[in-house]
Amino acid sequence: MPRLCTTVWLVCELLLAATCSEAGPPDFERDVAPLLSARCLRCHGVAGPEAGLSLASRDGAFKRLESGRPAIAAQRPEESGLLQRVMSAAPDERMPPQGEPLSQAQIELLRQWIAAGADWPDHWAYRPLRAAAPPTDAADSDWVRSPVDAFISARLREVALAPSPEADRRTLIRRLTIDLWGLPPTPGDVAEFLADGRPDAVERLVDRLLASPRYGERQARHWMDLVHYAETHGNDQDRPRESAWPYRDYLIDAFNADLPYARFVAEQVAGDIVAPEDSRALTATGFLSAGPWDESSLRDIREDTLDREIARYLDRDDIVTTVMTTFTSTTVQCARCHDHKFDPIPQADYYALQAVFADTGKGNRVFDADPAIARRRRELQQGLAALPGRLQAEDPALLEPELQAAVTTWSNSLSTAVRRWQPAELKSWKAENGSELMLQADGSLLASGPRPEVETYKVTFAAPTSRLTGVMLEVLTDPSLPMQGPGRQDNGNLHLNEVVLWQIVPGEPAGRKKLEFASAEADFDQAGWTIAHAIDGNPATAWGIHPQVGQNHRAAFRLKEPLDLPPDALLQLELQQTHGRQHLIGRARISATAEPDARLSDEERLPADVRQALLKMSADRTAADQRRLAAAWLEQRETAALAALPAQQRVFCGSNQFEPDGSFRPTAQTRKVQVLHRGDIMQPRADATPGSLSLLNFSAARFPATETTTDGERRAALAGWLTSPDNVLTWRSIVNRSWQQRFGRGLVDTASDFGKMGASPSHPELLDALALDLLAHDGSLKRLHRQLVCSAAWRQSSQIRPDAALADADNRWIWRMHRSRMDAETIRDAALVLADVLDDTLGGPSVRQFVQTPGVAVTPNVDYAGFDVDSSALLRRSVYRFLFRTIPDPFMDALDCPDASQLTPKRGESLTALQALATLNDKVLVRHGERIAELLQRENDSIDAQTDAVFARILLRAPAVEERTAAADYARKHGLANLVRVLLNSNEFLFVD
After folding, report:
1. pLDDT band for position 418 (50/70/90)?
2. Where in the chain is the domain with CATH 2.60.120?
3. pLDDT at 641 over 90
């Protein structure tokens, strides 16, 4: 048997060689490239080619060998070293050196190819787009409706096939509505379409469907598969992302608005840079963070560890892979450890792309949904940021009469407020554990001498008023203190553990009465060390001041009850510093007030120099005082205006401007990315320069870069490269993806791999024609999709013709329409439409269609089965479901809803018994089935009428006589809801013809 198989194989190869000879020279893409890939590239590929010979590219293959002879000499087979080596019988010369030698037919194929000139064109995906006129000699010209059909018809004629007739009108409207909306039509929609006798009825229907918001929801769901979007981190800590959903809403809005494709791409890679005025574009950068994020390695371990650095490389790999497979259909990630084995992508290109995203983090970023509010916030923030510089430059505009008039009115009203805190007259002071306190001219106390780890200051003072409502403690800077204070720690830090106020009562046995504080507030709180800790009675906590050392700060303590004091009454304030490490107060001043509201006002929060200027009479203020007051007035006005703006939203996105999450923070300096030998972080070879792929020559492969180039600028440069009209990969890729969405398979079967290991296009001229047309019409995807679904090719019946199936079983040449099962979301959403309960609200936070409870670790417990089937959350479209990465909905999972940790260019379409069990028994579908039955029972009195209505609503047709009888009997016996379940599980409903 083996000998017979070998003989048959040899005969087939000889026949192939003879066929090539008769039909002309061998075609490189069809005949030669597969042979080289199968038998040669293992040793003579891109990475480390044996003997220096690479057969992965034309340049490598035509170079001279070590012997001085060319490997391939065009038109001179006898001088071609490659041919001589594959023909040699000598063990030390023949190629390949191991395994079976090339057959005579394969050698003859190579000989004929070389003799004919060894044509080696660039790979089809890298060639410039070629304009080809649609064939005009179609024998079935009556069938051709568009240029699309002309190309399809020409290829069908080449393989001796004919197109299928057009599907019936009921099939067309159902196919169109499900394809473009992901929802079924209603019986009313069908009746209206069937009654429309106009010749352009289909085109009118398509225009209506494309104009609906439902179109954007459908397209967004396709895109979310492609970019592995989910709303949790994945990995071992699958924490929910509460603000991922704005990216989903961006997709829906962008598709509905028919955003030009180049803009759509650029905004997802660098929307915050290419459209800084447009908050919608900022949400587009959720694309960069759509994939998993390793919280354990990127947040929960030390910043300076090797594991943290490895995690950064892996996270950037996810971003690079997502960007390049999505937009250019290249497998650039295969060059992470070595030069790409099959495609001309060197390892340096891969790390150039990693360098683009060197500082890109995945985190929450605030934004204003309203562009006008975003613009106003930006203006206010810029104004506040410019004030210090204006003061330093002594901006004369701060002395303009109109501004000064407003400042005078403001400062006069504040002067009184500033004076409400009266300095206390100090009577005695001491430090209990060795420090020395010295009275200063301004009434403050400066500590000097030893700095013990535990210290208590007791300061006795006379109340400045007969009624006391609160005291204020000021901690002041001083040149004698480390970092100018206000603390005595070497870094100027201060931790105040406890503040206690006593009333001294002469003659009473205890001598002192503790006064209770109601609240405390300060003008600055170190994170985790708020002023409330100074009065909470817990010795382990404290009020902290760091890193704002070198500045005066104040804290107000309000009494629970106002205290009326007798003449000559004394008070004692205890300041206890027990935190350790000599975090002692360096210089302190005490004031008191009788005002009813003994809190810090905005005035007390002003810097000391402003308050000093306010205490002066207007005539005594210098020009410097006036400028400082003007700046303070402007700052207070702008700050108040900022506070009055609506609260900002958040989006989980990719950039270097995100809210810190623990130790995961934006980097201030550009991180170095290195080319790693074998992808090993311990084997860096060279610094990577930000850039793109060198296989396309329309622009430089490396971007202009300096040490100050920002994350956003690098991303914007990549966006420009991706969206260039000369980037043939980008435009071919989106056309192929659009074709795949509409026809069920792409013109190129491997939608995310246009490389040598991917498929070749079935209709290359059509692919290029559509790409050029898309470019010529501003990248309008709606126009492209309209072209496709209005074509005769798309309108074909899906019925199988035995003769055509024998010649082209997998319908590669599009002689019929592809038949497919509805996806999981469409099945569930269709039930909502049929029950007339669909909540068609657009956008907003995702709905949790599960019960969520805290888990043992970070990942919560999620229960889909326990969720209330009558919850309004189950009435939203499935595109608005909250998507867990590691805990998928079992029903959706059974129906091939993809794993959100994986990029999914095309969903699988399996047929399993588990799916039948899911669609029959899923309690959500069962509940919707009951709703459908209840609706039809309200509208129809008899079982027979209800049976007809069930068929009309679910299958969009009347039942046959036998069907009506059997169905009505079933409904009488088991109830109408069970008849609904039967039809919801029928192939006629679940499949789209």
Report:
1. low
2. 422-599
3. yes
For 797-953, list the strands marked E by DSSP: 820-821, 851-853, 861-863
Residue 656 per-residue DSSP state = S
Residues 6+ apart with CB under 8 A from 348: 675, 686, 688
Q: What is the pLDDT of residue 3?
A: 40
> Which residues face 139 on adjacent strands?
none
Using alpha carbons, select from 464, 465, 447, 468 the residue that is nearest to residue 456. Answer: 447
Q: Is the pLDDT of residue 645 over 70?
A: yes
Give the H/E segment covering residue 971.
helix 961-974
| Confidence check: pLDDT of 20 > 70 | no
pLDDT of 633? 87
Cα of 404 vs its chain's centroid, Å: 49
DSSP string computed for 676-712: EGGG-TT-EEEE---B--SS--SS-SB----TT--HH
pLDDT of 311-333, one tens digit each? Answer: 999 999 999 999 999 999 999 99
CA distance 305 to 294: 15
pLDDT per residue as tens digits for the range 506-535: 888 888 999 999 999 998 888 888 999 999
Two structure tokens written together for 971: 């409904």
Q: Average pLDDT of the chain?
A: 91
Pairwise CA distance, residues 716 & 724, whole Å = 12
Q: Which fold has domain 422-599?
A: Jelly Rolls (2.60.120)
Q: Is the dihedral of CA 909, 910, 916, 921 positive or negative?
A: negative
Task: Give per-residue pLDDT as tens, 24-73.
Answer: 788 887 788 888 878 887 788 766 688 888 887 787 888 887 778 888 98
3-state secondary structure at position 991 = strand
**Residues counted in the chain:** 993
d(CA 904, CA 230) in angstroms, rounded, equals 13
Model pLDDT, residue 56: 77
**What integer is the mean pLDDT of 302-313?**
94
Q: Report pLDDT digits (tens) over 854-863.
A: 988 889 999 9
- Comparing CA positions, the residue from 765, 785, 763 lying closest to residue 774 is 785
**406-443 burial: b if 16+ Cβ within 10 Å, else e:** ebbebbeebbeebebbebbebeebebeeebebeeeeee
Residue among 40, 34, 91 at smallest CA distance from 61: 40
Q: What is the mean pLDDT of residues 334-359?
A: 94
CA distance 521 to 498: 14
Write out pLDDT tens, residues 571-597.
Answer: 999 998 877 778 899 999 999 998 888
Closest CA to 658 of 220, 224, 241: 241
Question: How crowded is residue 604: how many other Cβ atoms within 10 Å of its Cβ?
Answer: 21
pTM (two decimals): 0.82
Q: Which helix (H) or strand (E) holds 563?
A: strand 553-564
**DSSP helix, strand, coil percent of the chain (3-state; round to 5):** 45, 15, 45
Contact 895, 801 (CB under 8 A): no
User: Is the separation of the CB atoms in 110 and 82 below 8 Å?
Assistant: yes
Q: Using H for helix, E for strand and C for coil, what is the string for 402-457?
A: HHHHHHHHHHHHHHHHHCCCEECEEEEEEECCCCEEEECCCCCEEEECCCCCCEEE
Distance CA 358, CA 742 (A): 37
Q: Is 326 helix (H, G, I), strand (E, B) or coil?
A: helix
Full DSSP string of 504-556: E-TTSSS-EEEEPEEEEEES--BTTB-GGGGGS--TT--EEE-S-TTS-EEEE
The half-sphere exposure of 678 on its side-chain side, counting CA atoms within 13 A, is 3
